[in-house]
Amino acid sequence: MKLLGIMFTMIFTDNYVLVKFLGICPFLGVSKKFDSCLGMTGAVTFVMTLASAATWAIYTYIMVPLELEYLSTIIFILVIAALVQFVEIVLKKYMKGLYNALGIYLPLITTNCAVLAVTLLNVDNNYNFLESLVDGFAAGIGFGVALILFCGVRKALEHAKPPKAFEGLPITLVAAALTSMTFMGFTGMAEKLFG
């Protein structure tokens, strides 16, 4: 039941993009095309899941015994960077179209604060290995839900005629804020359902 609670929380009530406002750069940059959204969702979910597993193991079996917990941010960033390089190499070799569609946003997964946040919060929440894995996976799915939802909003905005002052980025940011507000409706549901 706790694992379902973690999943629901990461996808809806504590969504990194729409509730915690982390990972906004790829959220705004990639959400124009549905295919790019799916590709970025897959890449971010893969990196978050593997990063959660790898950082949990490194933290538990190396850093804690050696009392190196204070280095967690630096070490976690290095692990994430290595995983992103791996994803980039695989996509470049086997999925050239997706690699080109993601463009600069693929290497930016390394600096995506949502990916680092999931690894650090796994440690802060004292999650075990399975809980960390589920948390990383669900956070990636939540990231994807936000991307795909906002992709639909942006498609609708293409047909809108906002006032001149709101054209372009301003209307996109207003739409992102309104999309974010919709997730406030999930507040408290995790505690009621899985508490």
Question: Your description of this structure?
Answer:
The protein has one domain. The model has no long low-confidence stretch (mean pLDDT 89). The protein is mainly α and 195 residues long. The longest helix is centred in the first third of the chain and has 30 residues. 34% of the residues are buried. It is built from 9 helices and no strands.
Task: Provide keyphrases for this structure.
single chain; 195 residues; 9 helices; 72% helix
Write the layout of secondary structure elements.
Elements: H1 2-13, H2 24-30, H3 34-63, H4 72-94, H5 96-102, H6 113-124, H7 129-157, H8 169-182, H9 189-194
Helix pairs in contact: 1-7, 3-4, 3-6, 3-7, 4-5, 4-6, 6-7, 7-8
Summary of the model, kept short:
This protein is mainly alpha-helical and 195 residues long.
Question: How many strands, which pairing sense, and closed or not: the largest β-sheet?
Answer: none
Taking pLDDT < 50 over at least 5 consecutive residues as the criterion, the unreliable ranges are none
What's the overall average pLDDT, rounded? 89
Shape: globular
